[in-house]
Amino acid sequence: MRQLTDDADFVRLLYELGESVHLSEDPKEVMASSLKKIVGYYKAPFASISMYNPDSNRLDIEVCHGLPEDCQDYRLPMGVGVTGWVALHNQAALVDDVKNDPRYVEIVPSICSALAVPLVNGSQSFGVISIESEQVSAFSDLDLEKLEAISGVLVRVQNRIWRIAGLKKKTNQMESINKMVGQLSNRFELKGVLSDLTQEARKILDCRMSSLFLLNSDKRLELEVLIGVEGVIDHQESLSLDETSMGTAVHHGKTIEVTHLIATEENHFPEIILSENLESMLITPIVYEKEVIGVLNVYTSVRHRFSDTEKQIFRALADMGAFAIENSKLYSRIIDSEDTLRNSERLTTLGLLSAEIAHEIRNPLTVIKLLVESLSLNQSLDSDSQKDLEVVLEKIKNLGEIVGRVLNFGKSQNQMYSKWDMNTIVSDSIQLVRFKLRRNRVRVYFDPTDPMIVNCHKGQLQQVLLNLFINAEEAMPGGGEIFIKLDVDEQEKRLNVFFGDTGQGISDEIKSGIFDSFLSGKPTGSGLGLSIVKRILKEHRGNIEIESTGENGTTFRFWLPMADL
Fold first, then answer.
1. Average pLDDT taken over every residue of the chain
2. pTM of the model
3. HSE on the CB side for 310, CA within 13 Å?
4. Domain count, the chain
5. Which domain holds residue 76?
């Protein structure tokens, strides 16, 4: 040791290397400056500092002197070459003649001797300093001892730089998260929350791509957002938990790291993984009140092992996102509740008006009924006219029942149900609207089948069909076709009625709420027709849904339980 301190130039070198930490915060810049000083002291023609890359498990030449320009593209596996052996065994090496050393991997043919010392942090090396000469036995044991002392100084310098860089990165990440908190707290729309959260995850961890999946009611992961460097990527994906590594994160509620995506045969958007050359992936569950509601993912384009700090930051972001997602859902429910209350108020007012109107209609309706009954007694009427009068009388009777239901709202209507063949109800309904449809060039196709008996109120089911006929006719202003088909579901013991038209279809804006009260796609519509249809069918223990809609027309499907014969 005394020989080392007696060398004033060497002591000055150690001092300058120790002070280099103040020159720059860039590790590579400090290494380049340090290597230049080391080369100047040893007067060596060749030198390099190689760093261990945990993602590739290889040594990368970070800075060099005298070596070919493309040497930094050289990746040395651990244990290979003198440098690889030093890194693997954490031991220095003094090689007097590299030509006789089986460990040596030639980069420059003229190199004859070498000196290599590991950069050791704790018990593990993270790099190697190498010095080479074109002379045999160019270095002594003292040179080796000095290089080991230099190595110790560089380790301390590098650790300090890395700590500063780590603290700055963590500070920037925390600032980004704090900024994200403010941004999400002002977001109430779910789609915006999901997009912001996914975008911020990619930025904070400086990754190639990010995605967010939410768990639906069927316990499947639905892709909500996929973002790359250039912005949102339009893609749809639905996965079962058994198809992907994300399922492991959901089942265990823990962050999962996939170092090599291709090798694991990850099943979500494989085409994008290949086209974007995605290598590694970090998955963290989005947990709200101990329940996993989705997963947040980031992807790198180089193989990467995520640090504990990166995982902690990522988990904190996901936890914050969970609250933002649930808050947006809660806000949406509040808005829906307010809309429901407003509709309820309107329905209450409408109910009062309906009762008054029904009361006023009942008396003139009775007069009309008596007059039509007297007309039906006329024997001179032909059979078609007589049949039309019978239909008019039946409709007047139905109107009377509707008025009675309005005035006796809330009373059970079960006593008015009876067994009817659905073929008859459909045929009679077509008879009622035949003139209107013919005038508007609308043709109806219906082939009666074997009797299909349902327990129902015939007038109410005709009201269902009349509303569907009117909507279909208005959707085909230039004429068109209506198709009605009956089909029995033996397993569910119910009758399916398919009612299709060749109209212009239902717009996406109103499709999801088409059966809500006061929602109409027509300028003069009340928005009550289909809501009444749904209410009637539910009273009959059935329901209705849109089977399909588009530019070629719309098909509704409604169903009723079959009657016990």
1. 81
2. 0.43
3. 20
4. 3
5. 2-168
